[in-house]
Design a protein that fits this description.
alpha/beta, Rossmann fold, CmoB, four-stranded mixed beta sheet
Length: 320
Amino acid sequence: MSFNSFYKSIATNRLSHWLNTLPAQLTDWQQNQLHGEYAAWQKTLDALPKTSPSSVSLAEGVYVGEKADIAEGEYKRLEALLKKFKPWRKGPYHIHGLHVDTEWRSDFKWDRLVPHISDLKNRYVLDIGCGSGYHLWRMRGAGAKFVVGVDPTQLFLAQFKAVQHFIGDDSVNLLPLGIEQLPELNAFDTVFSMGVLYHRRSPIDFLYQLKSQLVKGGELVLETLIVDGDENTVLVPGERYAKMRNVWFIPSGAAMCAWMERCGFKNVRMVNTDITQFEEQRKTDWIDTESLSDFLDPNDPSKTIEGYPAPKRAIFIANK
């Protein structure tokens, strides 16, 4: 896999200083860190049909082309090939009439946050822990000039590359990195972090890392699990939370605001809270794994299977 087009893009924009470290990191990734199945995923990517979409729309979702753009046989092959990338977590995608019905209706989250964020037109945008990149495309559809997502999960990179194959927009990119591998770029107008903070062992360090990616005055959009309580309330679950092993700290909304202010963010506010519903996270033919209904107490859906409060999510916005 080549990242040369990304290097060429940033060589002439405000991210050019990233070239001091990034090529060596990605070369090491390719030589020493490739997932055992990556060669098979790359083979599937190479087999995707080459199409000429009659339209691409990213404003109301991710819609690429129509079914009429391709032959019936190509449609069936497209479905078979994309299903080789299961599980599809974040979406949905509509590619030549094929509905990739992902586990999460990530458009629900997008609709919740859009009324509260700054206009993305002409902005440089970073999404930390972006999954397969669904929101990257929505950010581009909202007018962002240059969009970068980082996520170390290599299946998500393969899924992103599959969608990018049909859209063909080099202003949207996904890199197989974690935030701890990013230098202090101080270059993005908006940084998104959605569904990541509770997976970090040190949430305060994580907030400082997010801050170091923003230009002065830039906007952080952070979405995370929360619990009810005051500014001193933080849930530290046991080995698992909703069957997830890597959940470390779930603060109250007030505690989250206090953490952000302690890290030097300004104009901190919680703009939305939402209880995750079965309509937003559920089993589909595109995942073959458990989902929300399996993570909650069957006798009391207000609790997780372990007895903790069921997932409640909030969106926070702040400025550097």
